[in-house]
Predict the structure.
Amino acid sequence: MRISPDSAVLGAIALLFASAFPVAADETIALKAVRLFDGKSKTFVQNGVVIVQGNMILDVGSNLPVPSGARVLDLGDATLSPGFMDAHTHLTSDSSGNYNLTRLQRLELNVSEQAIRATVFARATVEAGFTTVRDLGSGLAASREFIDVALRNSINKGVIVGPRMLVATKGIGATGGHFDRTGGFRDFLFGREPDYTDGIADSPDDVRKAVRFEVKNGADVIKAAVSGGVLSLADEVDTPQLTPAEMMALVDESHRLRKKVAVHCHGDQAAREAIEAGVDSIEHGSFMKPETLRRMKAKGTFLTPTLMAGEWVMSKLDNYPPALQEKGKAAVAARSEMFRNAVRMGVKISFGTDAAVFPHGQNAKEFKLMVDLGMTPIDALRSATSSNADLLGIAQKVGTLEKDKLADIIAMPGDPSLDITATERISFVMKEGKIVRNEDRAQGR
Ligand SMILES: [Zn+2]
């Protein structure tokens, strides 16, 4: 085929492609730093270089030659890393303030106003270095909206800036359980009992229907509450809330639809039953006994410890009603030993924080809590990169700095293996080849 040499036509074609594909497909960027963490190795690469072309990583290594014409960004005494992933966020809400005020506000604000606020939380999260999140539950009492789906889609389309999101829509749970958003309110205040469209399910068939309904409406992952929780008013923190038959239905239906299952679970009995049912991750896990952790290890189930959530509640106890204070204290008292045991036994650990319980953007504070409870800094970094990519089922695209992966790359000052709090001072963020944050523009040459 012959193409007309008419430059005006070619210019128009170029313009058309430029607008259709906002990523400058041919721009090559060479990122350099004193250290590089590839997401999986036990040691850092010295004098790290990542060559990015368009949205992809072209090459990674030590002292790589810079291709001619490439833009060089030398970040100096910093550590390059794959973008962090948080396996447990709630980007559509912020419940870090006074519990009762937050609860009232959720009833007062229009859903559209809450969605606008969510765009701010999404930006804060990606600017903190979290280029991917698994968002585990977004629902408002008496609302049929799917804010998390809208947020994910708007980010994917480039309308707003935020992390790649895998969303769970409504959490699935039992009547009166942790996810029953009408719990603690006057009976029938909202005019009806919640049903599968709100994630509430009370039989194996109901659970299947809820899973199908969520996938129909855009869920990437399924979340359920199999035990009680800290921040819910009508339950005890560790009681089982789904039956083994309901959990089997949950896992079977989700896996048939190729969706992974994350379960909110503090109690030991519920955890044992969920692990046997084949869930992919246990969220929180506060009261899990060593025998339960052994089953997790044998089955390859991930633990997402969300240490930050407990830490925040304990630091702001006055924000919570007395009954919730007691539940929070009990969960936090148990979880430190549980987490130490899990690390010692080699249970797979995914980095996840429960952001929304604390202000969005502070996710990286989880690293120090993990390290303080016995995890090595490198293993903590791996949990937030390659391990989470495995758990989320996206390891073929992201999670490591390797040739042909998407260019999700961050940098932090200094050496996080010597001071893990370097993760809290992210200075550079690139998502799919686009620079989201660069505090060191002067060094770009
Ligand atoms: Zn949560």
In short: The first strand starts at residue 28 and ends at 36.
